[in-house]
Amino acid sequence: MAYIPHQLPEDKTTLIKDHLKLVDILVGRMVTQVPAFMNRDDMRSAGMMGLIDAANKFKPEKKILFKTFAEYRIRGAILDEMRKLDWFSRSLREKQNKLSRTMADLERELGRCPDENEMAASLEISLDEYQRLLGQVSHLGCVSLNETLDHTDQGRSFQEALEDQRSDSSPVNRLEKMELTKTIAEIIGQLSEKERLVISLYYYEELTQKEIAEILEVSEGRVSQLHSQALLKLKTKVKATC
Question: Which top CATH class is 112-241?
Answer without folding.
Answer: mainly alpha
